[in-house]
Amino acid sequence: MDSSLEQQLLELYQFLESPPTENLCGSCRICCTASGLTRQNVTRLELAVLGEAGEDFARYAARERGADGDYVFPVCPNLGPEGCRVYTIRPFSCRVFGHYRAGGTRLPSECVFVGKDREFPAADYYRVVPGALRLRELSRDFQLRTVPQRGTSNGGESESGVGLNLEDPWDRALEQVGRGELPDLPAESEGESLFAAYVRALVAGERGQHPEALRFYTRVVDACPERHDLMTFAGFHAFQLGLLDQAEGFWLRSLRLFSGNPLTFSFLGYLFSHRQEWQMAADFFGAAFELEPGQPVHRQRRDEALSKVAQA
Ligand code: SF4
Ligand code: SF4
Prior knowledge:
The protein is mainly alpha-helical. It has two domains: 130 residues, no CATH class; 147 residues, Tetratricopeptide repeat domain (Serine Threonine Protein Phosphatase 5, Tetratricopeptide repeat), CATH 1.25.40.10. The chain has 14 helices and four strands. The chain has a two-stranded antiparallel sheet with strand order 1-2. Strands 3-4 form a two-stranded parallel ribbon. A hairpin with a 2-residue loop joins strand 1 and strand 2. About 4% of the residues have low confidence. It binds iron/sulfur cluster (2 copies). One iron/sulfur cluster (SF4) binds next to loops.
């Protein structure tokens, strides 16, 4: 648990405990059961902080059901005879439960907080619930470190609590880019989140502002060393600026992490064509074609490069 985002989450948890409060809620534990609380959001960052205890908890929080239709975990797997076994690192939703309640939802009738909780319109969640925005920011940055699987978006984590919040300028911008629009972004400020840098990189890329796109992608990939997909984009903008060695560096790093992206191979093909190193160009276009045989331009480029080799 040495990463700074995980450390920052622990600091947030500490802030929520401060000044230290007793667990006033008593012992009914109904909110630690799948039927007592039918929905629970938890982010991947919080699961990472839970470590091994997070594995079953994720399934519990998702209210996973077995083939018989019953909950796989009817009771939170972290609940022991003495209460919560992960109390000091329990997720955010466990911490705010009972104190805050979205309009239209109900606390269990046995809950000691009934009548003492603060009801808020669901849309005001991030404004009302202390720490919610900070959790969101940390969790989004954590999510950014993970390479998205095919068919999922870069920004969405709705299944685990960090979905788009259209009141947030960065989420709104991301959504606009997804719709093919070019949003106006807030002026750059000190200490912006990684997610803000990611959105700035995307928007600058869409606008063809290569120096900005390269600067922001570089910041993101430096912090997210697994994001081979973003390295490919960083390389693209370096290439556009004529920084061929830098582009090559990004693309080779990307390929070392993942050798299944035809775009990276094809970019390297262009780079070596530019250097007139035709055999290398042919090899990279050939690799792109193998990965994407339905894309005739790879074959065409490979054959052009091979004919240059033959002429040499
Ligand atoms: S993690 Fe702890 S507080 Fe949260 S639901 Fe489980 S037992 Fe209850
Ligand atoms: S349902 Fe209410 S009283 Fe019961 S454990 Fe949860 S917060 Fe406490």
